Amino acid sequence: MTDLVRASGPVVMGVLNVTPDSFSDGGRYADLDAAVGHGVRLRDAGAHLVDIGGESTRPGAERIDAATEAERVLPVIRELTAAGVTVSVDTSRARVAEAALAAGAAVVNDVSGGLADPDMARVVRDAHCPWVLMHWRGHSRAMRELATYTDVVVDVRAELAQRIDTALAAGVAADRLIVDPGLGFAKTAAHNWELSSRLPELLDLGYPLLFGASRKSYLGRLLATADGTPRPTAQREAATVATSVLAVAAGAWGVRVHDVQATADALAVWAATGSPRLAVSPHDEKRTPHDHEHGVRR
Ligand code: PMM
């Protein structure tokens, strides 16, 4: 699985949330079949990884207990792994991660970056599996009040560096770590845009970067009607694809998306045009009007 971390091409992580609001109708087995079927479709559409989460992390969401979370994710992980799908588990609980790895999960996607459960580093270290360390400041109920930064990019970078140091100090190998700015987690829309436009400063940490903008509310606000009504979740796909391609062109290792087919198609176009990279670095001087004119003439 270390190969996945070192992958040069963009990695597409498909989202499979097995929370009651995703699969509310039908009995337990119908839910399981629906979840597994969806996971297989995500893989067939081009997902390198299917990310299975059993606890909603939406702002304001109430927590569920570890046993409920495990009951939701473990059967889906077992079946998808048996079907040959590479799976990550989206959890902040060491107990759930440990059981998920035993059930076949290959990657731990921890939205708390190791902060929520001090035992997570041990689990990841012993499993030698990749670990996504997302930038996080607190559980869903509290995250709105935690969205205060001096400079969001500088602060997120410094906090991710602390998460990396803690992981390394606990014995986790550097080549298992992936960082993620955590769009929408204790971030306003403006913070999300600032992070999106200054990814090179986060890439400068020297770790693969996962970018998860898919269908998030800041895209809904960008595309709001004149009276301020946000664009509904299901109609944010073109914006999701645009942010994902821009993130990959800026150097992101991977993107976490709901509509894998749309993103995979867009990334195929990006690859067919020579995988162009956005030529920006945090130290680049801003382009002057003169440069622009020059570029146009050529
Ligand atoms: N976002 C959500 C859940 N898990 N994991 C990572 N690594 N990065 C994210 O941005 C992220 C995540 C919330 O989005 P969802 O409710 O659409 O799954």
What would your notes on this structure say?
By secondary structure, the chain is α/β, with parallel strands linked by helices. The protein has a single domain (4-293), classed as Alpha-Beta Barrel (TIM Barrel). Helices cover 43% and strands 11% of the residues. It is built from twelve helices and eight strands. The chain has an eight-stranded parallel sheet with strand order 6-5-4-3-2-1-8-7. Helix 2 (28-44) links the parallel strand 1 (11-17) and strand 2. The longest helix has 18 residues, at 152-169. The radius of gyration is 19 Å and the shape is globular. The N and C termini lie far apart (45 Å). The structure holds pterin-6-yl-methyl-monophosphate. Residues 15, 17, 57-58, 90, 109, 111, 132, 134, 180, 182-183, 210, 212, 256 line the site of pterin-6-yl-methyl-monophosphate.
